[in-house]
Write a structure and sequence with these properties.
With 384 residues, this protein is of the alpha/beta class. It contains nine helices and 21 strands. It has one domain: 2-Layer Sandwich (Endonuclease, Chain A), CATH 3.30.870.10. Strands 1, 2, 3, 5, 6, 7, 8, 10, 11 and 17 form a ten-stranded mixed beta sheet that branches. The radius of gyration is 20 Å and the shape is globular. The N terminus is likely disordered.
Length: 384
Protein backbone atom coordinates (compact mmCIF):
# COMPACT_ATOMS: atom_id res chain seq x y z
CA UNK A 1 0.00 0.00 0.00
CA UNK A 2 1.42 3.35 -1.05
CA UNK A 3 0.90 6.57 0.88
CA UNK A 4 2.55 8.77 -1.72
CA UNK A 5 0.94 11.97 -0.47
CA UNK A 6 2.07 11.63 3.13
CA UNK A 7 5.64 11.38 4.39
CA UNK A 8 5.27 10.27 7.98
CA UNK A 9 8.88 10.85 8.85
CA UNK A 10 8.57 14.44 7.70
CA UNK A 11 5.44 14.96 9.77
CA UNK A 12 7.07 13.65 12.91
CA UNK A 13 9.93 16.09 12.51
CA UNK A 14 7.79 19.19 11.90
CA UNK A 15 8.52 22.33 13.86
CA UNK A 16 5.62 24.20 15.41
CA UNK A 17 3.77 26.73 13.25
CA UNK A 18 4.62 30.23 14.40
CA UNK A 19 1.10 31.07 15.57
CA UNK A 20 0.34 27.47 16.45
CA UNK A 21 -2.95 25.62 16.14
CA UNK A 22 -5.48 26.30 18.90
CA UNK A 23 -7.13 23.25 20.43
CA UNK A 24 -10.83 23.74 21.18
CA UNK A 25 -12.88 21.68 23.64
CA UNK A 26 -16.39 21.09 24.94
CA UNK A 27 -16.76 19.14 28.19
CA UNK A 28 -20.20 17.90 29.27
CA UNK A 29 -21.48 20.02 32.13
CA UNK A 30 -21.74 18.42 35.58
CA UNK A 31 -18.67 16.23 35.09
CA UNK A 32 -15.29 16.31 36.82
CA UNK A 33 -13.40 16.46 33.54
CA UNK A 34 -10.86 19.27 33.24
CA UNK A 35 -9.87 21.76 30.56
CA UNK A 36 -6.07 21.72 30.01
CA UNK A 37 -4.36 25.09 30.28
CA UNK A 38 -4.42 26.96 27.00
CA UNK A 39 -7.29 24.98 25.44
CA UNK A 40 -10.18 27.16 24.24
CA UNK A 41 -13.93 26.72 24.73
CA UNK A 42 -15.97 25.74 21.65
CA UNK A 43 -18.79 28.25 22.08
CA UNK A 44 -16.45 31.15 22.83
CA UNK A 45 -14.23 30.26 19.86
CA UNK A 46 -17.10 30.05 17.38
CA UNK A 47 -18.67 33.34 18.48
CA UNK A 48 -15.31 35.12 18.49
CA UNK A 49 -14.55 33.93 14.97
CA UNK A 50 -17.93 34.98 13.58
CA UNK A 51 -17.70 38.35 15.33
CA UNK A 52 -14.32 38.92 13.67
CA UNK A 53 -16.01 39.15 10.25
CA UNK A 54 -16.67 42.90 10.11
CA UNK A 55 -18.05 43.81 6.68
CA UNK A 56 -18.53 42.86 3.04
CA UNK A 57 -14.79 42.55 2.56
CA UNK A 58 -14.86 39.46 4.80
CA UNK A 59 -16.76 36.17 4.37
CA UNK A 60 -18.10 33.17 6.29
CA UNK A 61 -18.25 29.72 4.67
CA UNK A 62 -19.78 26.90 6.74
CA UNK A 63 -20.18 23.20 5.96
CA UNK A 64 -22.14 21.28 8.59
CA UNK A 65 -23.88 17.94 9.01
CA UNK A 66 -26.95 19.70 10.44
CA UNK A 67 -28.12 22.52 12.71
CA UNK A 68 -30.05 21.97 15.94
CA UNK A 69 -31.09 24.80 18.23
CA UNK A 70 -33.21 25.04 21.37
CA UNK A 71 -34.60 28.02 23.24
CA UNK A 72 -32.24 29.34 25.89
CA UNK A 73 -29.39 27.07 24.79
CA UNK A 74 -25.90 28.12 23.57
CA UNK A 75 -26.49 27.51 19.86
CA UNK A 76 -28.70 30.60 19.88
CA UNK A 77 -25.62 32.74 20.55
CA UNK A 78 -23.80 31.16 17.59
CA UNK A 79 -26.69 31.69 15.17
CA UNK A 80 -27.14 35.26 16.42
CA UNK A 81 -23.45 35.94 15.74
CA UNK A 82 -23.79 34.63 12.17
CA UNK A 83 -26.93 36.70 11.57
CA UNK A 84 -25.24 39.77 13.01
CA UNK A 85 -22.30 39.28 10.64
CA UNK A 86 -24.70 39.06 7.71
CA UNK A 87 -26.32 42.26 8.97
CA UNK A 88 -22.92 43.95 8.74
CA UNK A 89 -22.76 42.97 5.08
CA UNK A 90 -20.64 39.81 5.48
CA UNK A 91 -21.54 37.24 2.79
CA UNK A 92 -22.39 33.92 4.45
CA UNK A 93 -22.63 30.55 2.68
CA UNK A 94 -23.87 27.42 4.43
CA UNK A 95 -23.96 23.79 3.25
CA UNK A 96 -25.95 21.17 5.19
CA UNK A 97 -26.55 17.47 4.54
CA UNK A 98 -29.82 16.39 2.92
CA UNK A 99 -30.12 12.96 4.54
CA UNK A 100 -30.21 14.33 8.09
CA UNK A 101 -32.83 16.98 7.34
CA UNK A 102 -35.63 14.59 8.21
CA UNK A 103 -34.20 14.41 11.73
CA UNK A 104 -33.22 18.08 12.04
CA UNK A 105 -35.36 20.10 9.57
CA UNK A 106 -34.28 23.35 11.20
CA UNK A 107 -30.93 22.78 9.49
CA UNK A 108 -32.45 24.07 6.26
CA UNK A 109 -34.38 26.95 7.81
CA UNK A 110 -32.35 28.42 10.68
CA UNK A 111 -30.40 30.73 8.38
CA UNK A 112 -32.54 30.95 5.23
CA UNK A 113 -34.34 34.00 3.87
CA UNK A 114 -31.83 36.33 5.52
CA UNK A 115 -30.06 38.97 3.48
CA UNK A 116 -26.43 38.08 2.70
CA UNK A 117 -26.94 34.42 3.68
CA UNK A 118 -27.32 31.60 1.18
CA UNK A 119 -28.02 28.00 2.22
CA UNK A 120 -27.48 24.99 0.00
CA UNK A 121 -28.30 21.34 0.65
CA UNK A 122 -25.99 18.56 -0.51
CA UNK A 123 -27.09 14.97 -1.14
CA UNK A 124 -24.03 12.86 -0.46
CA UNK A 125 -25.87 9.62 -1.11
CA UNK A 126 -25.59 10.51 -4.80
CA UNK A 127 -21.93 11.48 -4.50
CA UNK A 128 -20.25 9.05 -2.13
CA UNK A 129 -23.09 6.88 -0.89
CA UNK A 130 -22.79 8.38 2.59
CA UNK A 131 -23.47 11.75 4.20
CA UNK A 132 -21.91 15.20 4.44
CA UNK A 133 -20.44 14.53 7.90
CA UNK A 134 -17.76 17.24 8.14
CA UNK A 135 -18.06 20.14 10.57
CA UNK A 136 -15.98 23.20 9.71
CA UNK A 137 -16.10 26.85 8.76
CA UNK A 138 -13.78 29.48 7.30
CA UNK A 139 -13.83 33.18 8.18
CA UNK A 140 -12.34 35.74 5.83
CA UNK A 141 -10.54 33.06 3.85
CA UNK A 142 -7.80 32.99 6.50
CA UNK A 143 -9.17 31.64 9.79
CA UNK A 144 -10.66 28.13 10.05
CA UNK A 145 -12.20 25.78 12.60
CA UNK A 146 -12.79 22.04 12.18
CA UNK A 147 -13.65 19.34 14.67
CA UNK A 148 -16.14 16.84 16.01
CA UNK A 149 -18.77 19.33 17.18
CA UNK A 150 -21.89 19.65 15.07
CA UNK A 151 -23.86 22.91 14.95
CA UNK A 152 -25.92 21.48 17.79
CA UNK A 153 -26.71 23.05 21.17
CA UNK A 154 -25.87 19.71 22.81
CA UNK A 155 -22.36 19.81 21.30
CA UNK A 156 -21.75 23.07 23.15
CA UNK A 157 -22.89 21.81 26.55
CA UNK A 158 -23.57 18.09 26.88
CA UNK A 159 -21.10 16.23 24.63
CA UNK A 160 -17.34 15.68 24.74
CA UNK A 161 -16.05 17.44 21.60
CA UNK A 162 -12.61 18.45 20.33
CA UNK A 163 -11.67 20.77 17.50
CA UNK A 164 -8.90 22.92 16.18
CA UNK A 165 -8.69 26.55 15.09
CA UNK A 166 -5.92 27.50 12.68
CA UNK A 167 -4.70 30.12 10.26
CA UNK A 168 -2.35 27.63 8.58
CA UNK A 169 -2.46 28.42 4.85
CA UNK A 170 -2.35 24.78 3.78
CA UNK A 171 -5.30 23.81 5.97
CA UNK A 172 -7.36 26.91 5.17
CA UNK A 173 -6.82 26.68 1.40
CA UNK A 174 -7.56 22.93 1.48
CA UNK A 175 -10.80 23.49 3.37
CA UNK A 176 -11.73 26.25 0.93
CA UNK A 177 -11.15 23.91 -2.00
CA UNK A 178 -13.37 21.26 -0.39
CA UNK A 179 -16.03 23.87 0.30
CA UNK A 180 -16.05 25.21 -3.26
CA UNK A 181 -16.24 21.66 -4.63
CA UNK A 182 -19.30 20.88 -2.51
CA UNK A 183 -20.88 24.31 -2.96
CA UNK A 184 -20.86 24.10 -6.74
CA UNK A 185 -22.97 20.94 -6.76
CA UNK A 186 -25.22 21.54 -3.74
CA UNK A 187 -28.87 22.39 -4.31
CA UNK A 188 -30.06 25.88 -3.51
CA UNK A 189 -32.81 26.52 -0.96
CA UNK A 190 -34.60 29.61 0.27
CA UNK A 191 -33.86 33.06 -1.12
CA UNK A 192 -30.66 33.07 -3.13
CA UNK A 193 -28.55 36.06 -2.11
CA UNK A 194 -25.11 35.21 -3.45
CA UNK A 195 -23.38 33.62 -6.41
CA UNK A 196 -20.78 30.87 -6.10
CA UNK A 197 -17.21 32.16 -6.13
CA UNK A 198 -16.24 29.93 -9.03
CA UNK A 199 -13.09 27.85 -9.33
CA UNK A 200 -11.46 26.27 -6.29
CA UNK A 201 -8.48 28.07 -4.75
CA UNK A 202 -4.97 26.76 -5.12
CA UNK A 203 -4.00 24.53 -2.21
CA UNK A 204 -0.91 25.72 -0.38
CA UNK A 205 1.88 23.28 0.42
CA UNK A 206 1.78 21.54 3.79
CA UNK A 207 3.75 23.24 6.53
CA UNK A 208 3.41 22.47 10.20
CA UNK A 209 -0.08 21.08 9.67
CA UNK A 210 -1.12 18.51 7.08
CA UNK A 211 -4.70 18.37 5.79
CA UNK A 212 -6.57 15.14 5.08
CA UNK A 213 -10.14 14.49 3.99
CA UNK A 214 -12.73 11.89 2.99
CA UNK A 215 -14.09 10.16 0.98
CA UNK A 216 -11.23 8.63 -0.97
CA UNK A 217 -12.89 9.03 -4.36
CA UNK A 218 -14.00 12.65 -3.95
CA UNK A 219 -10.93 14.75 -3.16
CA UNK A 220 -8.89 17.41 -4.94
CA UNK A 221 -5.81 15.74 -6.44
CA UNK A 222 -3.40 17.27 -3.91
CA UNK A 223 -5.40 16.25 -0.81
CA UNK A 224 -4.45 13.10 1.11
CA UNK A 225 -7.27 10.76 2.15
CA UNK A 226 -8.00 10.39 5.84
CA UNK A 227 -7.83 6.60 5.77
CA UNK A 228 -4.36 6.63 4.18
CA UNK A 229 -3.26 9.22 6.72
CA UNK A 230 -4.46 7.14 9.67
CA UNK A 231 -2.96 3.92 8.32
CA UNK A 232 0.38 5.65 7.80
CA UNK A 233 0.42 7.13 11.29
CA UNK A 234 -0.50 3.79 12.89
CA UNK A 235 2.11 1.90 10.87
CA UNK A 236 4.79 4.40 11.89
CA UNK A 237 4.09 4.25 15.64
CA UNK A 238 7.18 3.26 17.64
CA UNK A 239 5.95 3.63 21.22
CA UNK A 240 2.23 4.19 21.66
CA UNK A 241 -1.14 4.87 20.07
CA UNK A 242 -4.03 6.65 21.80
CA UNK A 243 -7.30 6.75 19.90
CA UNK A 244 -10.54 8.45 20.91
CA UNK A 245 -13.75 8.12 18.92
CA UNK A 246 -17.48 7.92 19.46
CA UNK A 247 -17.77 4.67 17.55
CA UNK A 248 -15.52 1.98 16.15
CA UNK A 249 -16.88 -0.70 13.86
CA UNK A 250 -15.82 -3.21 11.23
CA UNK A 251 -19.36 -3.67 9.94
CA UNK A 252 -20.31 -2.47 6.46
CA UNK A 253 -23.87 -1.25 6.01
CA UNK A 254 -25.96 -3.68 4.01
CA UNK A 255 -23.21 -6.27 3.69
CA UNK A 256 -22.21 -9.45 5.51
CA UNK A 257 -18.51 -8.83 4.97
CA UNK A 258 -16.39 -6.91 7.45
CA UNK A 259 -14.02 -4.00 6.80
CA UNK A 260 -10.74 -4.71 8.58
CA UNK A 261 -8.29 -2.21 7.07
CA UNK A 262 -7.89 -0.15 10.25
CA UNK A 263 -8.54 -3.16 12.47
CA UNK A 264 -5.58 -5.03 10.99
CA UNK A 265 -3.33 -1.99 11.36
CA UNK A 266 -4.21 -1.51 15.05
CA UNK A 267 -3.82 -5.20 15.87
CA UNK A 268 -0.46 -5.30 14.11
CA UNK A 269 0.62 -2.22 16.07
CA UNK A 270 -0.44 -3.82 19.34
CA UNK A 271 1.54 -6.96 18.52
CA UNK A 272 4.58 -4.83 17.68
CA UNK A 273 4.42 -2.38 20.58
CA UNK A 274 3.12 -4.38 23.55
CA UNK A 275 5.78 -5.66 25.94
CA UNK A 276 5.36 -8.47 28.51
CA UNK A 277 4.46 -7.15 31.93
CA UNK A 278 3.67 -3.64 30.69
CA UNK A 279 0.35 -1.92 30.08
CA UNK A 280 -1.09 -2.01 26.56
CA UNK A 281 0.56 0.45 24.21
CA UNK A 282 -2.48 0.77 21.95
CA UNK A 283 -5.36 2.40 23.82
CA UNK A 284 -8.87 3.11 22.51
CA UNK A 285 -11.61 5.20 24.09
CA UNK A 286 -15.14 4.94 22.72
CA UNK A 287 -18.62 5.77 23.91
CA UNK A 288 -20.41 3.15 25.98
CA UNK A 289 -23.34 3.11 23.56
CA UNK A 290 -20.96 1.70 20.93
CA UNK A 291 -19.09 -0.90 23.00
CA UNK A 292 -20.87 -3.87 21.41
CA UNK A 293 -20.20 -2.87 17.80
CA UNK A 294 -18.49 -5.45 15.57
CA UNK A 295 -14.72 -5.32 15.85
CA UNK A 296 -14.44 -4.08 19.43
CA UNK A 297 -14.11 -7.53 21.01
CA UNK A 298 -11.50 -8.47 18.43
CA UNK A 299 -9.44 -5.41 19.38
CA UNK A 300 -9.47 -6.45 23.03
CA UNK A 301 -8.58 -10.03 22.17
CA UNK A 302 -5.66 -8.76 20.09
CA UNK A 303 -4.03 -6.83 22.91
CA UNK A 304 -5.60 -3.41 22.43
CA UNK A 305 -6.88 -1.91 25.68
CA UNK A 306 -10.37 -0.52 25.10
CA UNK A 307 -12.30 1.56 27.60
CA UNK A 308 -15.93 2.57 27.18
CA UNK A 309 -17.01 5.95 28.54
CA UNK A 310 -20.40 6.60 30.10
CA UNK A 311 -21.16 10.25 30.84
CA UNK A 312 -23.74 10.55 33.67
CA UNK A 313 -27.18 11.86 32.81
CA UNK A 314 -27.89 15.55 33.25
CA UNK A 315 -29.56 16.65 36.50
CA UNK A 316 -32.29 18.30 34.44
CA UNK A 317 -33.33 14.93 33.00
CA UNK A 318 -32.41 12.71 30.04
CA UNK A 319 -31.35 14.46 26.83
CA UNK A 320 -31.61 12.44 23.59
CA UNK A 321 -28.39 12.23 21.56
CA UNK A 322 -26.32 13.79 24.33
CA UNK A 323 -24.09 12.91 27.30
CA UNK A 324 -21.65 11.21 24.90
CA UNK A 325 -17.99 11.31 23.93
CA UNK A 326 -17.99 12.44 20.31
CA UNK A 327 -14.35 13.53 19.87
CA UNK A 328 -12.32 11.93 17.07
CA UNK A 329 -8.53 11.97 17.29
CA UNK A 330 -5.41 9.77 17.23
CA UNK A 331 -2.12 10.45 19.04
CA UNK A 332 1.06 8.60 18.02
CA UNK A 333 4.12 8.32 20.28
CA UNK A 334 3.10 11.45 22.17
CA UNK A 335 4.49 13.46 19.24
CA UNK A 336 1.92 13.65 16.45
CA UNK A 337 -1.86 13.67 16.27
CA UNK A 338 -4.67 13.49 13.75
CA UNK A 339 -7.88 15.31 14.71
CA UNK A 340 -10.96 15.38 12.54
CA UNK A 341 -14.62 14.66 11.90
CA UNK A 342 -14.57 10.95 10.99
CA UNK A 343 -15.58 8.09 13.25
CA UNK A 344 -13.77 4.77 12.78
CA UNK A 345 -15.83 2.91 10.18
CA UNK A 346 -15.59 2.28 6.45
CA UNK A 347 -18.50 4.51 5.41
CA UNK A 348 -16.81 7.56 6.89
CA UNK A 349 -13.66 7.13 4.79
CA UNK A 350 -15.12 5.79 1.56
CA UNK A 351 -18.64 7.25 1.38
CA UNK A 352 -18.93 10.42 3.46
CA UNK A 353 -17.39 13.88 3.51
CA UNK A 354 -15.01 14.39 6.41
CA UNK A 355 -12.02 16.62 7.15
CA UNK A 356 -9.06 16.59 9.55
CA UNK A 357 -5.50 17.69 10.23
CA UNK A 358 -2.21 16.13 11.32
CA UNK A 359 0.03 18.14 13.63
CA UNK A 360 3.22 17.77 15.65
CA UNK A 361 2.78 21.11 17.42
CA UNK A 362 4.74 20.98 20.66
CA UNK A 363 2.04 22.82 22.58
CA UNK A 364 -1.05 21.14 21.15
CA UNK A 365 0.17 17.52 21.38
CA UNK A 366 0.52 17.45 25.20
CA UNK A 367 -2.77 19.31 25.53
CA UNK A 368 -4.54 16.61 23.51
CA UNK A 369 -2.76 13.91 25.51
CA UNK A 370 -4.08 15.54 28.67
CA UNK A 371 -7.63 15.50 27.28
CA UNK A 372 -7.28 11.78 26.48
CA UNK A 373 -5.67 10.88 29.83
CA UNK A 374 -8.32 12.79 31.77
CA UNK A 375 -11.03 10.57 30.30
CA UNK A 376 -8.92 7.40 30.33
CA UNK A 377 -8.32 7.61 34.08
CA UNK A 378 -11.75 8.98 34.97
CA UNK A 379 -14.50 7.10 36.79
CA UNK A 380 -16.56 7.40 33.59
CA UNK A 381 -14.26 5.01 31.67
CA UNK A 382 -14.53 1.24 32.18
CA UNK A 383 -12.10 -1.32 30.77
CA UNK A 384 -13.63 -3.88 28.41
Amino acid sequence: MLFKNLALGFLLALNAYAAGPQLVLTLPVETKLRVPQGVADTLETWVEMFNSAKDSHSSIDIEQFYISDAAGEPMEEVLDAIKAAAGRGVPVRLIVDKTFLKNQPEGATALTNIENIEVRIIDYTKLGGGVQHSKYFIVGGTDAYLGSANFDWRALKHIHETGIRTQDKHVVSSLQAIFEKDWDRAARTGTVQLAALGSSPKISKAGSLHFAASPVADLPSSVTSTVDTLLSLIAGAKQSIQLQTMEYTTSVYGKQTRWTELQAALLKAAERLNKPGESAKVQVLLDKTKETQPGVKELVAGGVEVRAVEIPQYSGGPIPYARLIHSKFLIVDGKTFWLGTDNYGRSYYYGSRGVGVVSSDKKAVPQLESIFDDLWTSTYAKKL
